[in-house]
């Protein structure tokens, strides 16, 4: 499908969720032309992330119907008049969206943008407009994470596209824009895990295993993966974990304390389960830090012993997207991958776009760690 004119937009296939918990349905929709600061990207592949399911199930509030998907990788097809950093033909990864104007963006923390909610979960641009209509001409919400990448094309912003080298398979790179970035960035950037320290990932999915790999890069010498899936724990050992804990069979807090002798220096809660967050806090040592990245249902609360946090000087911090600036951090991950130090390709399994519901089901059942949907070849002639 090709754009009729620059102003008419483009007809394409997109995976649409119309009701809470409903399956993704491939529909023909029309996507509008890029505005002056926007970039039209032809999707090559898109990762499937837990947050896509969280929104599909309406555990996070977002308007429906919507085109989800937020780990897109593709080729720039067209750019708006004011775009200067990418050009048609460039290979890009799309990441989260930020406004660039608020205090946190200006201070170098765009992942904690004051407009994070409306820009990434609002179902359109910050002004409330959407660019997608269905076959009946009705609005379909889009701009999910500033992209809506479960589609053949996406409209992103110059702010949330990252140019990537062409000597790495483009279809592999989409998850660097969210899940893998979140795990690695949390370790290397937000927590600043130190050489010689101890680190525990609670949850050995894509985020947790990316954190395990990053902890090895950071020089942590005790690296622990806690999960209930034996196969994922085996994989963690090949990716840098020095110890694993099957928390279905063992007391995770007691095991961390036994392994580290004094409690962990750093923990990262990746599962989105309140009871696991309590474990991640309780196993910390003096001045230990727990990072929270697991997405939970809105309104979820967790209890902890206040004195057990205050007296040892433990710290609990919320982390979004590893608190990274994606334009600089994604190239770092690619360099580490090319050096053989960050083998995130071991986490992925590819699916055809038409099999999106199977990919989601396999992810939810733990069959696949990081599904990637193949949308189209990098070369149209391939």
The amount of helix comes to 25-40%
Class by helix and strand content? alpha/beta
Head-to-tail CA distance between termini? 16 Å
Average predicted confidence as pLDDT = 95
Poorly predicted runs of 5 or more residues = 1-6
Tell me the overall shape: globular
Condensed summary:
With 382 residues, the chain is an alpha/beta fold. It is 26% helix and 25% strand.
Walk me through this protein's architecture:
By secondary structure, the chain is of the alpha/beta class. Strands 3, 5, 6, 9, 10, 17 and 18 form a seven-stranded mixed β-sheet that branches. A six-stranded parallel β-sheet has the order 13-12-11-14-15-16, sandwiched between helices. The protein starts with 9 loop residues before the first strand and ends in an 8-residue tail after the last strand. The model is unreliable at 1-6 (pLDDT under 50). The chain has eleven helices and 18 strands.
């Amino acid at each position: 499908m090709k754009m009729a004119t620059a102003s008419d937009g483009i007809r394409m296939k997109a995976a649409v969720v119309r009701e809470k918990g409903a399956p993704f349905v491939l529909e023909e929709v029309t996507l509008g032309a890029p505005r002056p600061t926007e970039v039209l990207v032809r999707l090559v592949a898109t990762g499937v992330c837990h947050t896509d399911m969280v929104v599909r199930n309406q555990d996070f509030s977002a308007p429906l119907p919507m085109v989800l998907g937020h780990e897109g990788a593709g080729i720039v097809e067209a750019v708006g008049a004011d775009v200067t950093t990418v050009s048609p033909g460039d290979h890009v990864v799309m990441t989260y969206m930020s406004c660039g104007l608020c205090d946190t963006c200006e201070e170098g923390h765009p992942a904690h943008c004051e407009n994070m909610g409306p820009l990434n979960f609002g179902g359109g641009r910050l002004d409330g407009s959407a660019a997608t209509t269905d076959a009946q001409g009705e609005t379909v919400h889009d701009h999910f994470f500033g992209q809506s990448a479960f589609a053949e094309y996406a409209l992103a912003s110059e702010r949330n596209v990252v140019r990537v080298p062409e000597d790495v398979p483009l279809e592999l790179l989409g998850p660097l824009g969210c899940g893998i970035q979140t795990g690695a960035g949390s370790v290397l950037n937000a927590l600043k895990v130190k050489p010689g320290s101890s680190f525990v990932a609670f949850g050995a999915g894509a985020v947790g295993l990316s954190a395990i790999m990053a902890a090895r890069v950071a020089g942590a010498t005790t690296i622990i993966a806690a999960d209930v899936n034996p196969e994922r724990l085996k994989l963690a050992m090949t990716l840098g974990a020095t110890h694993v804990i099957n928390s279905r069979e063992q007391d995770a807090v007691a095991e961390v304390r036994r392994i580290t002798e004094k409690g962990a220096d750093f923990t990262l809660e990746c599962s989105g389960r309140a009871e696991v967050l309590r474990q991640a806090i309780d196993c910390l040592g003096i001045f230990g830090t727990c990072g929270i990245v697991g997405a939970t249902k809105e309104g979820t609360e967790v209890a902890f012993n206040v004195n057990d946090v205050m007296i040892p000087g433990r710290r609990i911090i919320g982390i979004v997207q590893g608190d990274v600036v994606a334009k600089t951090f994604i190239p770092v991950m690619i360099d580490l991958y090319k050096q053989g130090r960050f083998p995130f390709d071991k986490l992925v399994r590819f699916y055809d776009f038409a099999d999106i519901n199977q990919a989601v089901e396999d992810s939810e059942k733990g069959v696949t760690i990081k599904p990637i949907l193949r949308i189209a070849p990098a070369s149209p002639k391939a």
